[in-house]
Amino acid sequence: MESQIIRPGHLTAHQTATALGISLAGVRQLVRRGHLTRAPGSTPRQTWITVADVQAYGARRAQRQAA
After folding, report:
1. Contact 23/61 with Cβ under 8 angstroms?
2. What is the pTM (predicted TM-score) of this model?
3. C-alpha span between 63 and 5 (Å, rounded)
4. How large is the average pLDDT for residues 35-55?
5. Other CB atoms closer than 10 Å to residue 39's CB: what's the count?
6. 49-67 exposure pattern, b = at least 16 Cβ within 10 A, e = fewer
7. Where are the alpha helices (DSSP H) in 1-67?
8. Three-class SS state of 65
9. Could you tell me if 49 and 13 are in contact, meaning their C-beta atoms sit under 8 angstroms apart?
10. Which of 9, 14, 25, 27 is the most buried (most CB within 10 A)?
11. CA proximity to 30, closest of 6, 4, 3, 11
């Protein structure tokens, strides 16, 4: 279930998964491995990730795939 409150400049874990084209479990793994960082104010039940962090990871992934 997605939050009804959207924090400006942030994405939920579900929105991040959709933006990156991966599963929610994949987002959790990226956070666990340090590729994405949970934003301050995140709770164990509601993870927020900054849009800039998601865009930076997406760019790194695209560059890696192009090489």
Report:
1. no
2. 0.85
3. 33
4. 92
5. 16
6. bbeebbeebeeeeeeeeee
7. 13-20, 24-32, 51-66
8. helix
9. yes
10. 27
11. 11
Look-up of token digits 């800039």: 52
State the pLDDT at residue 2.
55
Whether the pLDDT of residue 32 is over 90: the answer is: yes
* Angle of the 13-20 helix axis to the 24-32 helix axis, nearest 10: 100
Q: How many CA atoms lie within 13 A of 50 on its CB side?
A: 8
How far is residue 31 from each of residues 4, 34, 38, 66, 67, measured CA to CA in Å?
22, 5, 7, 23, 24
Of the candidates 50, 65, 60, the one whose C-alpha atom is nearest the C-alpha of residue 15 is 50
Q: Which two tokens stand for residue 43?
A: 């709770």
Cα–Cα dist 55/20, whole Å: 9
For 5, the token pair is: 């409150």
